[in-house]
Sequence to fold (329 residues):
Amino acid sequence: MSLTKLLLSFIAAAVIATVSTSAQAQEYRAIFASGFKPNSPHHQAALKMKEEVEAASDGRIEITLLHSGQGGSAREAFEALQIGSMQITWVPTARISGFVPELQVLDLPYLFPNREKMIDVLDGPVGKELLEFLTPQGVRGVGYYVDGFKNMTANKPLRTLDDFEGFKMRTMESGIIMEQYRALGADPVPVAFLEVYNALQMNMVDGQENPVNLIHDMKFYEVQDYLMLTEHAMLAGVLIYSSSWFDSLPADLQSIMMEAGKKMIDRQRAGVQEVEAADLERIRESGTEIVTITDAQKAAFREATLPVHKIFSDERGGEMLKKIYAATQ
Fold:
């Protein structure tokens, strides 16, 4: 058993013991773990959610927050929700593609024309239908957090397809994202999020992709000379609850959890937008060169990666993709 899983087991045992031995204790406790840093908009939103839930429930729910990967990787957190040793997490859709392949549709390159249209789709009927694919996995989808458009960092400018030849690009462990970089001519290398900084520093990979706020929060710019504003895909994730835990809550507490979860997502989205410009300026001031990609260069990247849409359709069926196309017209 890994140290992370052992720690979670101890926490879960302590929760059970406390609830069963003290009539005055909170009736329900939840472990909420993520890979985000304490100063991130994600963790700040989670802190507010904890405060609101505990107040609204009159202390009947108590939430323990674990940040910076203290609860394990995204995959480990998802598995912990499935078995009930953890109750809440939020993870990028790409990181759980092995459990719910249908969610990979959101990771396709050049799928959404802008952030506003993506929000419309995620919060609309198509987004709700996608969340239902989580149910058979023993987790309940609450909604989608959004980090924004992904950009690329490297120790050389990446402006043309030739620049990707032989380039080792760190990706999440997602078949669709890896296919995207193969289409560009690069060599995709899956690396866990919390290990990316060291992988870049030790030249195990040549570059990585993430929205500006995560590039800033994880300090990837410290070990990369260039930030390309490619805006080639959106990075979104899902807020999920353990079904076994959520279903054990009485109806009034379920309502509190759903409302608080949706408010937290709204705060995360707003928080990311608020800090993005300042984060980009701090990256620039650090000495990292900001490279603006022209419309013509973006068009070349888009043309090279559009076949990845067909790969997804061939593997997973094209119905959800067609619905997104229709919703973004």
Notes: The chain has one domain: 3-328.
